Queue: 4 jobs
Job 1
Amino acid sequence: MTASATGGRRAFLRSACKHCVGMGALLPGLPALAQDNAAASPLPAERFARPALETDEGGLWGMMDREETRLRRSPFVVRDVELNKYLQDLVCRLGGDHCPDIRVHVVRTPLFNATMAPNGMMQVWTGLLLRAENEAQLAAVLGHEIGHYLERHTLERLRDLRSRAAFAQFIGMFGLVGAIGQLGALAGAFAFSREHETRADRLGMHLMKRAGYDGRQAAQVWDNLLGELKITGGEDAGKRSPMMATHPPLESRRDDLLKLAGDASGITGAAEYNQAIARHRFGWLQDEIRRGQFEESLVLFNRLLARNPLDSQALYARGEVYRLRAGKEDLQESLNDLTRVTAFEQPPAEAYRALGLVQKQRTDGPSAVQAFEKYLSAAPDAADSGLIKNYIAELKP
Amino acid sequence: MKKILIASSVLVLAFLSGCMSITKVEGEQVVNNRMAVKVADAWNKVSAPGTKQPFDMWTQEGLTLDHLRLWAAVKPGQALLVHPAGSVPMGQKAPRVPTYEAGMQPDQLVSLFEVMYSADGSIVNMTKVEPAVFAGEKGVRFEFSVTRKGDDVLLNGVGWVSQSKGELFAATFLAPKLSFFPRLLPKAESIVRTAQIRG
């Protein structure tokens, strides 16, 4: 794929809407965050009126409106009425009177992020939905985004960029659009200030607790993300990851969110959440595998399996990543996972394929053929059926 | 805001046009001194500034519309693409890139290209994978679709890959599904059919 000016401009437009959650960091604001009383957060009581077109805010809304028109047609948008209603209802519980002004779009991108534009366009990436463990964790992220929206942080950011001629940064980001990890860096270039992130954290906590969720789940979100960030960022990832450049250091952010959360009252909504994403989850796991960032994926899949060792989809995903990474002990680890998952009542067809490929590498021909035949029986029209049939022919005596 | 965006776009275009090298290729061409192909219709070879990629990239209509990538004699441990210099933030480890390893199975080779084309957030779906001969060696041919992240364009692609003496040889062709792919694929295939390993 080549970098394109179009892609760069779109990235800016997308970034102008928001930023966030997956990506944050801040230092000076933390004490204030820790001492704030969430219940005292002032929220705008009235819905926002559309700003006059000739103002800078009106111009920003116009840009975001055009971006939303494009987004509505995008093949990356997940068009699932039930999932969208679930998310829209969640946003309404968080946003209260502002609910009619916020429109949720689920975007198929295997990274942890959600964004919010000043015109009310909210994007939720599927990588976030895969990583959230329950409704409360998702509410923490979306509440944070709504916090930016309610305080018009994007407008302040735009004015700040203009006053500091920071568009040089914008130009510098062209040509970097390549690896998906760099999308985070691109996003980070236009991230909110630390002060904004701290305010959004505080408002998000207020909103999620007001909606009845367990506020401690907000801290868990960052704890979970930190594990993945350490793969490329090392032990200090929470302090200096580019994805967190303007957010508080993750460790202290987690601690301060815990203080704000207070007692353990509130729901997590795990069952409701699992049901809402069930239809799409396997596809999102496959998107995660396709990223090819095996170590990060293993952190995620290990976490999913620690929470539920009988999660057949996650077990397949981990076995597949071990197979693809093909390190020293990986073949055996893959064999262990795939053998387990294919013993489940209704394993994914892909698990038989992966098991057959592992057995073939181990030169266990009969076991490989058996697994391949089960794969083709479960998925006779599979794209790689021609190759698999050829493998079977080669392996059969 | 609009003026700033226009000015930015002009600067970017000036930057790109000033540094991208485009040369005409026709007749017999040799990729990486190891794979010869015969080019009936002229193509444009594009070399981006900065980091040298381990593949030749050719196009008929321009890189946003189509590209034919050719890899020759990729060694074990060598990546199929290289991150541009300076693209990895300070203090960060570079993300993994699809890397060829000795003895990879055909399905593993196909996965390398699947990951490569997914790397910018595009959606890649393999639609057909079957044994084939490429550059005179037994290998695999794969067809795939790409929903490109940068502009939402739907593309179709075809790839060919084989191994010889522990080295990888491959080609991929990608173009928008509508009009360009069916029109340009025969031109790409006519080149791929002539691929021969040297040495």
Note: The beta strands of chain B are 21-31, 35-47, 56-59, 67-74, 123-134, 137-147, 154-164, 167-176, 196-197.
Job 2
Amino acid sequence: MKSSKATRMLLRGIFAALMLSAVFAASAGASPAWKFEGKALEGKETVVGAAIDSSLTIPGLTTKCENFLYKLTIENVSETGKGSVTELPLYNCTTDTKNCTVKSIAAEALPWAVQAKLISSTNYIVIEGVKVAILYAGELCALGGTLARVTGTAGGRIDNTAETATFDKASFAATGTALKALGSTIEWNGVFPTEAFEGHRLQALTVS
Amino acid sequence: MRKKQTRARTVCAAISLVALACLGLAAGAAAKLTGEFTRFAQCPYTNAEVRRCLYSTTEGGTVVLGNKTVTITSPAVLQGGYGPVGEDEFATKFFAAKNGITLSKAPQSVPGGLLGIVPPEKSPPLVKALSAFFFENALTGVNSTLELAKPASAIRISENHLAEEFDIALEMPVQIHLENPFLGKNCLVGSSSAPIPLKLTTGTTAPPLPNKPIKGKAGELELLEEGTILKLKGTELMDNSWAAPSASGCGGILSFLVNPIINAQVGLPSAAGKNTAILKNTLYESPAIAVKTNDETHP
């Protein structure tokens, strides 16, 4: 009699532990899939867009590009949204100081691996292997002639309603990602619309 | 009588004029730097060969010399200017500070002083205080000062290595000056003919045993004054591969007796892999032309 009570308690304990593990697994980085009109993407799709607003900030110097385009190839691998950034042309870049100009800026080591992640019930896109080389100029600029290489991993928050991915301090903190340049952590703020360009053109892209 | 008075008045007026002219010239020659640029007052920025100005304060860190560990508590300043970057990624030439104080002398107290008596780390504060009072006072206390052993032109700096945390960022030929009334004025470890070649990195060191690799830090970057001044806070420069020679010149004419005592006390000579320099800095850099422009626009 005593042993059956003990067995019941043990089973209850195991069940509770399993439930807890499942909850933690979901909140600690489950992998959502790419969906078009609510249906999981089959095969590959190309997403192309231009940043609505994007800036890179080293404390004291913010760099903005008028044309911040991107091309992203996406697919679901084992029901997980994956992909890669294949192109990132950057044009007409300036800084917020009169002394520093951007002589050249270019994405390096493309493609960059992309994965969709669910963290604490919010969907994120995580881009790994980011590498952007910025050459600043200006004879009065302290970074004049210095090649600043922005490297690291970037995490952006996905808004299924607005169909955008937003990169900011909060999204980097939530995804545990960081970008560095010249040995220091830098801030990347940007809002990117997600629009399919091939078979799913004009269809709503969501991540869930 | 009147003639004498007139002459006296003329002389006085002339002296006043000369004095005023001198004052005017002195004011004209003084640097008129403002804001964050005031740090670069000793940078030879008017020299056309100088491309950048440097002002770096070592605010903390440790120097392990033989069996002595000295904690840096008194800030030291390295300042001057340097030329364009060469193919080896180092500045082609370093230029001394205008006032001649390229590396300021910041004496650091050697634990245990002359007698080398240091209470165990776990000792009560009173024991530590008494030990410091008796063994680290003006008479028995010893200060060590890191000094440039060669002219400033022997300093080598690579901004790129410093920011990217690899290879040597700053190379300085130094000597360590041990000071105490008994040791005289010339008790040195290293000299201008045989300096300690500190090769500091913000990357990871590769020392010979028994030292182990240690990692430096470029620090957190910030741009000041509309992007014209670069500030690196929390920069950690390391070298634990250097060798320290025997002490020399300790005790004046009694150096033949005192040198061996100091060598035994400090553990000199000390082979490469047994010494360490960790320098924690805040560093400021600016193009010389930006400093000059600031000077000229603030008469």
Note: The first strand of chain B starts at residue 52 and ends at 65.
Job 3
Amino acid sequence: MTPIRRASRALLVGSVLVVLASACAPDSSNLAGDGHDHSSMPVDPARVMGAPDRPIAGPQGAVGQFVVECPFSHALPDDPIVYPGEPGASHMHVFFGNTGADADSTLESLLEDGTTCEQALDTASYWAPALYHDDVMLVPEKSVAYYRAGLDVDPTEVVAFPAGLSMIAGDPAATEPQPTSVVAWSCGSGAARDETPPSCPSGRGLRLDVTFPDCWDGEHLDVAGHREHMRYSTTGQCPSSHPVHVPQLIFSVAYSFSGDPTGLKLASGGVLTGHADFVNSWDQDKLEDEVKYCLQRDVVCGVTSGRVSG
Amino acid sequence: MKLFRSLVGFCVLSVSMIACGSGDDTADTPSTEAPSTDAPATDAPSTDAPTEGVLNVPADYATIQEAVDAAAEGDLILIAPGTYNEAVQVTTDNIVIRGLDRNAVIMDGNFELDNGFRVVGASGVAIENMTAMNYTKNGFFWTGSNSYRGSYLTAWRNGDYGIYAFDSVGGLLEHSYAAGSPDAGFYIGQCFPCDAVIRNVIAEHNGLGYSGTNAGGNLIIVNSVFRNNRAGIVPNSGSYELCYPQRKTTIVGNLVYSNNQPDTPAIDVAILAMGNGILSAGGVQNIIERNRVWDHDKTGIGLVPFLEEDANDAIPSKDAWGTDCATQKQQMPVIPDGPLLWDSQDTEVRGNVLEDNRRADIAVGSAGSNLWELGNCFEGNTFTTSAPLELETLAPCGSPLSETAGDWLAGDLAVITWLVDAETAPPSVDWKIASLPELPQLENMPEAATAPAAPASATPPTVDLAAITVPDKVS
């Protein structure tokens, strides 16, 4: 992509967002509504947003869901949410789904990009910090995005993410273990959830599982610090400050790495700094269909089994 | 993506409304487009008076989705010949969706759309007499249905399953054909009791002809053909989905042959199961009778364990095998410490006719369990080879098995070596480009234009199993 093309896109989306801005969106043309203000990042963002009541694991098929598998797309030291317009400003990220996501991405550019996802209409961008073993970056195999109603949430209350919603789950600055209901490590498609990477047997690669918040304030696609517009539900309820039930996105990054976890670290720091980012640039009509048909009707629209397909 | 991109401008505008939570739902879905057919323009007046309860596509409705959305219970949607680039969602109970010509009503996903038809939580929906191809997921898919029927369907080159019913009960799949899926051509999964019949179908050039993870209980597969897949009929157990173990599937009167096909798309399980005709992988209480099974590199009929590395729950004890699916869904899983080994148990293999199955015509294997404690029996089969040797002497039906009946280790199947074989098996071929038989011209539903609508029944037809004899060999 040439810078010129980017600029024209930014103008185009900017003009669209002007319409948005008057009603509900921050006055900005990039994905993050806060420009370059990183200083307002909460000290403990996980505490701001809360956490699910418990980790979600076990056989699929009990509650409505849809699932998207997306092979690895690319790695860049960019963060379209936290460092928009600043290529190279971030720690290394691994991107899934949208094939063009970078520091200059806009909603408009993401909607025009391709996707690695098997669901061709999922052009959303998903990313996580790169994982290193003895300072060598591990190329992940794929990601799996599970979309469900949050724990004990009435699924008929759940609506699709608004287009352009940007959010982060997990704490890139964590120095203590995070709740495994938010950030966990596992092996293969197994149900165990650990605070730190386990030693996985050969053939059952390491996975990073990040659970996103499922309550939205109904107003902001993003906010300064990227946290205040989202909360986790508890006992099936969203707080009155964040009354809109959106899908609970559980995002898993699958590696082929197995064996001794000593020497593993994330680009954001140690193995305790697990987090993931999401920008909703799905084909919005398709996302709304999936929420309406699968979540609201509480029907299993797809499952994964860890099986490898050709 | 072409259609999608052309609509981007429109999408952004609608997006701005959605972002503000207007809740406006008037925008047409862009996931469908008008059928590329020579049929009359949709707004042209129809010369025939519309028949009550019959919705014609494209004469009355431009797209199948529009007709489905307009249909009321009991209605019949009739689709004229043409190619339809749609992924149709069905949520209305008791409607019948029928093509006027199975071989000329073509649903085409263009390798971008996910399911030809997805019936979500609706019951009584019957789909008849058409073809679905090139979908990234499934050709025809029912999920969460309490009754379903697929008749005279052709599924060809789809990215997951051909014809698929999940978490659904009360089903009939018949007179249908599925080819070119990396997983199963036909799949019924996660139900007990399933109360379903598969009859008169053909599955070829799939990873698996039939797969039925955790499906059974009055589930009957009869009078069908499974050929030239990686593996033929492969029900299995696993805790990655609910309603385990796989139980009580009855497989009678089928032709199962040459399931060694090396150039199909294939999930890993299909590669592991390659070269087997009928293979129970950790299923229990199945009945396999009067099938004709020939030309397989491994077993004609094999009962083997399923090794599940990433277990999500413990294996239910035998006294819980009667628990229905709805009850099991309410139970909290217990995460096991290690991998699970689902043994095939209490299965009866009787009266089958087998030949030229190179490892063994009939076989039972385990990965450490004592075979005489698994309760599988073999009786009255016509065969040449077995594993272990003298299998019908060791494991007769109708009496308890005994360790002292003979040498259970002689000619052991050594099923664990299949894991090694899988490492060197021909790799999966991309489903989008795998070599397939030409799209066949197949039998049409009788009187498609005039037959009255018959929504799916929750009670599948009664199958007179006793009347079914071993089918004759075909060339």
Note: Chain B touches chain A through 65 residues (CB under 8 Å).
Job 4
Amino acid sequence: MSVENQSHLNRIALVDSQGKSMTFGALKTSREMFASILFRFQVGGGCRVAILLEKSLASAIAIYTCVDISAAYIPVDVHLPKSRIDDTLADCNPHVVVHNQPGLFPDNESHACRIPGLEETFITVLLAPNYREVESKQAMPNFFTEYVSYVLYTSGSTGIPKGVVVPFDATKAFVMWASKSFDIVETDQIASIAPFHFDLSVLDLFVARYKKATLHLFSPEQVRNPRLMSEELSKRKISTIYATPTFYGALLEFGKIENQDWSYLRSVLFAGEVFPVKQLHGLMSIWNNVKFYNLYGPTETNVCTFTEIHRDNDRTEPYAIGKVCAGHEIEITEQGELLVGGLHVAKNYLNRSELTAEKFFTVGNTRWFRTGDKVEVDGTGHLLYKGRLDRMVKRRGYRIEPGEIESALHKLDGVTGAVVVEHRESHSVLLAAVVTTDGSRNFDIVQLKSELFQVLPDYMLPDSVITVNEFPKTSSGKIDYLKVQQDVVSSLHK
Amino acid sequence: MSAEIKSEVRTFLDASLSGGASAIQDDTKLISSRLLDSILALRLVTHLEAKFNIEFAAHEVTADNLESINRISEFVSSKMK
């Protein structure tokens, strides 16, 4: 072992949304002390730690500490409806939940503790081995048998979110790859835009830590306010940003970015959805000394293809998603589906052996994933994204299974059938709920949204509701989703 | 003035929510209920700025100032003074 270079300890590791900062030295102390607190509750390698905290210095420290002690961290969005938080916790059955709401789990043993360095923050570590009797408990090992760095939950077509289990080796390979590919150095100021339950945050958190760069955490409220973000990103001399096209689009449209100084900005990375070319070109005209990169990959593979975007003013179709990352292979099936194998690929879905067997497979020592995305290869060997094989929708970078919204609609009084389809309005992806009813009530979007918001995250809420007598069917008697979509578009533009 | 602002907001909501705005009262929560998503809220801000010749400062584009038709009307009126 070589002696670790200590020169970074006095530099800034983290800055929170309000500008409060922490050095690498203080972060190291906090991590060590938080690790010792977790050990006191027998939390160590192979354990699962749910993190139910706002994006903050405390949640970043908790995540880093989990990785230090080889426990899996499971970030749970505190803004989700309570029932969805409960379902997620029941599914992942964590050994402890780190949260800051005393009395949240009255039936469990709770301990208040302080994360050192954050004097005003009290964290309750909750012993939760009996959080809920999980049906599949016997089938689920109490501890992960290989080191898992995190489990991220994503929309499930049957109405229940599914946890993607990402092993430590995959995260490590990804972080090394990203650090090198985007030439991250210790003087970089990296913006953390994505919430920690969204996989874009993996790059932010761990590349910054690996390269000893400074990470700036932005809260969801800030991220929703492009004018504020424009000022903050410029003021904090941010050099690297990784976010969704939705974020950049809002920055361009509402952020007045032409009024700010961007001389420190050098890399703009985007992923999660297609970037409309007009908006991308608009951004490139203002950030004209900046490198733009398109990154592609579902949570199950993390980034598996990427490319630097070279502006082509004649281009009207979206830019390519790039070429496969080093250490990966791809196959394209006859239906055009992209299969990806390699170092960054996840291991399985938690507690879902059938779905895992359907989507993941192993060849030799290589893990492979069936993405469900259709692709084509262009003349230069770059992959072009051509849509989905199934009905999954991408919105604001989030994956949405329409089946999950339909399942929530079915549970509402008066609904006898429900179909959710996407449609586009300029640069926005909109969701329309088409329902059949028993006639006992009328549905308006205001009422529908307020009912669904009790059970669904906000990005899944429909934008309009249409009541029909029956759904159009295909010749084989199945619901004709394409026809439903066409009907929606013509009915909304009447 | 407040009637004019409210009517402007209503027209905007009607166009944005596919005619669903009739169920919205002056005190109906727009942001915390997620009736308006963040992009729609920003379009509304841009629209009000152009219409009433005002400017929201960055820190004023908040859920609080946009939470209901009443709140929007109060805030826009205060900017016009």
Note: The longest helix of chain B spans residues 2-16.
